[in-house]
Amino acid sequence: MYSVAMLQKIKMAVLQYVVIIYLSIAGIAIGYTMIGKYPHPYLLPITYIYGMISPYKGYISENQQLHIEVQVDERWSTIQLEEYWPTLYGEQVARGLLFSFQSLYVTDFPEQKYRELAARVFELEQKKGRNIQYVRLSWKYWPVSTESIFAMHYPPFIRSEFLVQYP
Amino acid sequence: MISKFIHTWNTFWFRSAPPHSMAVFRILFGIFFYIYSATFLVNVPMFFSDQGLILPLLVDHVPSWLQFVTVLPPVWVSYVLCTIFMLALTGFTFGYRFKLSTFLMIVIAYYFWQLSLHMFITSYNRILFLCLLVFLFSGADKTYSLWAKKYLGSYMAWQPICILPQRLITVQVTITYLGVGWQKWILPMWQDGKVLKYAFQTLWATPLGFKVIQLGLPDVVYDFFVFIIKVWESAVPFGFWHKKTRIFWIVTAWMFHLGIAVLMSIWWFVFLFALYHLFWEPEEFYTYLKKKGRAV
Q1: Residue B279 CB neighbours (<10 A)
Q2: Cis check: omega of the bond before B188, within 30 degrees of 0
Q3: From the candidates B203, B206, B211, B217, which should be mutated to test the interface with A, based on the most A CB atoms within 10 A?
Q4: Which terminus, N or C, of chain B has the lesser number of Cβ atoms within 10 Å?
């Protein structure tokens, strides 16, 4: 049987390891920030702490928004993003960029995940009873204005970048 | 020399201390979480159920026997989980069955995160989650809690706790400010004021941010403020630990995060207000509360 004193010693040793391991991981994460590199996603504890020391990187000189269109009876119509993502505009953009999949799959364009997103839209719209033929995802870009985010959100200022179509 | 270092190290990380600092953090953190949760509760089907446009993060990365956690739940399951979460949050905040409550919060929060919230990947969610993990072993319910009332006879009665959880949180906050500040000196986008200028009219801009832009201030003003932000963020992690000037740095931190909230609608970092008092030694904080008649 272990005595109370022995258990206290074991507990203390474990806590010492916790602190030393935590400080080591934090040190490596800071090291990654200093060399401007993103740690591999499988280095989970390091990427986790690295993610906690990430500065604001929302620097864009153009506004953008994920654009979801569905085709019903040969006619395309737009799905309002607020319907599915009832969040602030900035969060809608972040969600559309699929950042978490970018880092997990180590790619700037996780095409498969955009396909899955389009497939989800297809399924959800079908459930609503709409006879959907296709779903198309694209990015819309438009110039920044000092008036409001959507002040320049009309042709000919809108630029489009196709992402995926499903099926 | 070595024995002195070991003594200092052990005192800093592992000594027994009054629980009041962590208890106040627990209550303020709980209040923040009520507000934060409310932003999701109004749209549970869209955020956490099979009616939402969400993609589980781990779907390709968990063994087959764990795949059920990546299946989008029906709406009623999401509501049940949200209800359990809110009950656990109440237990957490009031210090009732604290470990069980914190554990349930961790499990459900992680489940919802990998289901949906990861799609808006943020540093604050990681810090919040780390805080929950630390709370699990913190003893933050050892005063100002239903536990204290039940087992010690009074809400204000207390038992000492290990200082380690408090240290882990303050060190992590220090590292966060330090790392963020450091990166701003080297990131190309932070080398002039444009990052700030665009921040007030893109992605996160608020009506107030647009009002600032409409003032038509020259670029040099934005350059200056970006420089000040970099200096401040590099200095504040040290300032928090400097007893004589700590209040100054904390007040500037409030101003900084409130400024970001009202000009850029990035409000979530106000949860940090709940933990700045952890930079005071727990014995000092306890003495202060005792003088004010808030502790026994």
Answers
A1: 21
A2: no
A3: B203
A4: N
Across the interface, of A51, A59, A116, the residue whose CB is closest to B126 is A51
Q: Which residues of chain B have pLDDT under 50?
A: none
DSSP codes of every residue in B178-240: HHHHHHHHH-GGGSSTHHHHHHTTSTT--HHHHHHHHT---HHHHHHHHHHHHHHHHHHHHHT
Comparing CA positions, the residue from A92, A106, A105 lying closest to residue B58 is A105
**% of chain A with per-residue pLDDT over 90:** 66
Q: Which helix (H) or strand (E) holds A9?
A: helix A4-35
Q: What is the pLDDT of residues B230-263, one digit of tens each?
A: 999 999 999 999 999 999 999 999 999 999 999 9
DSSP labels for A56-120? P----SEEEEEEEEEEETTEEEEEPHHHH--S-HHHHHHHHHTHHHHHHTT-S--HHHHHHHHHH
CA dihedral A68, A72, A77, A81 (to 10 degrees): -40
The span from the CA of A48 to the CA of B123, in Å, is 9
Tokens of B85: 């979460």
- Which residues have CB under 8 Å from B107's CB, separation 6+? none
Residue B275's identity, in one-letter code, is: L
Are A26 and B172 a contacting pair at CB < 8 A?
yes
Q: Could you tell me how many CB contacts below 8 A there are between chain A and chain B?
A: 139
**Complex ipTM:** 0.90
